[in-house]
Amino acid sequence: MLAGELRLGGAQVLVLERRAQPSQESRASTLHARTMEIFDERGLLPRFGAPPRRDQGHFGGIPLDLGTVPSHLAGQWTVPQTQVERVLAEWARELGADVRRAHEVEALGGTEGLGAAEGLGAAADGVTVRVTGPDGPRRIRADWVVGADGEDSTVRRLAGIDMSGTPATRELLRADVTGIDIPDRRFERRPHGLAIAGRLPSGATRLMVCQRGAAVARTTPPTFAEICAAWATVTGEDVSSGTPIWINVFTDASLLACRYRQGRVLLAGDAAHRQMPSGGQAINLGLQDAVNLGWKLAAEATGRAPDGLLDTYHLERQAAGREVLDNIAAQSALLLGADTDPLRVLVTGLIQQPAVRDLLAGTISGVGIRYAGGAHPLVGTRLGHVPLGTDLAAGGTSSTALLRKGWGVLIDLSADPARRARLDDLVRSRTARVRLVSCPPPPAGSPLDGVGALLLRPDGHVAWVSAGADDPTPALRRWFG
């Protein structure tokens, strides 16, 4: 995702991937409304076909209606991670990203040496990456390096970026298994732990089991025999006759990178945050990190960024990560705690209240994230899909369609030719990737009712709003130089 965003922003990008071939493990399979909106904004949605969708999500195993969030793509969408990876890899390559597989990063450093000991911060003009690939070891010089390499991030370790939070207290074993026929179980809390089982479209059954009191100080990967033993302890069922397709383990650790940026090294996705994958939020959080970072880093790399633009990545996404991790930690306590039944009854009742439901659904779906930056209630929010009548196309367009190129968009809703001319001069005087679109005033009931003009960032978030004839120059300078 980040490679594609960087290419949309005009930056040259090289992806180094340790695996020789794409993984066949779809560990994640849930996409939420905000992620689907992002794919729509980039014109990627048709590539996913018609994935299954449902309204009902959950909060700590308690049913939660996600179909009520204010989005044209509300709900929970089932898309295998393998498909997400394939679509995004094809898109990034089409845009010109250089993707090299079977390349493993071993060291980072400045101009004169390699490794964190030489000091990344001292390398003001770039980063040297030592990598081993099919043709042996080599050094690659980059202006910037992003570790988007998962919760055990090599880049984070080499950069010396610490994480803070709560270490693991429980582990959940997970496997996709063929050759078994057991009942589906949705967050079944039992005396000896938690059991989840569901038949996948492939015919395999996904098992997840947390055995109460099990140790979490693991030094080796779990075996299928361990999973069978834990499943038998919790449910009384024997699944040992099945064949595992893949096995893994995750924990309730809740850790956040202390910095998303150190010098010319940045982190995105699970490299910046480790959390229990409750409700499929991890993959969505990572993709949203990438879309926030991509246009900012591309502007920095191509010399268009105003001072401080790249610093807003850490400020905005660490805050968003903390909100999601707090949400997941609360779910973990509700779902895995031994004595939480009274609390679960209370939360079940509270979720029926629209204000509580909307708050929780907004965080889980991603549509409720608001970045700091302005007094108007729209500033900092993602605009979402708003139909617009515009002179760009006879049939009209939408806020979603205006973001296809990954540019900023200044939308004039005043219907005032003189104001349009002034705004056009402002946009033409800039080298940044911003365009002006004039539309008739929105109808009553539109999310933009009463708005005279607004500035959309390339990631779909609102940077500035005017109800009258305010000057957008300060906002243009802040975000686009």
Task: Specify the structural class.
Answer: alpha+beta
Q: Span from first to last CA?
A: 25 Å
| Number of strand segments | 27
User: CATH top level of the largest domain?
Assistant: Alpha Beta
Q: Kindly report the CATH topology of the largest domain.
A: FAD/NAD(P)-binding domain
Q: From the coordinates shown, what is the CATH architecture of the largest domain?
A: 3-Layer(bba) Sandwich
Please state the CA-atom Rg, rounded to the nearest Å: 24 Å
Largest sheet: 5 strands, antiparallel
Strand order of the biggest β-sheet: 14-15-16-13-17
Shape: globular
Beta-strand content: 25-35%
Q: Are there runs of 5+ residues with pLDDT below 50, and where? A: 116-122
Separate helix tally: 11
Output mean pLDDT: 92
Instruction: Name the CATH superfamily classification of the largest domain.
Output: FAD/NAD(P)-binding domain
Cofactor: FAD
Keywords: FAD, Flavoprotein
GO molecular function: FAD binding; oxidoreductase activity, acting on paired donors, with incorporation or reduction of molecular oxygen, NAD(P)H as one donor, and incorporation of one atom of oxygen
Protein name: Oxidoreductase
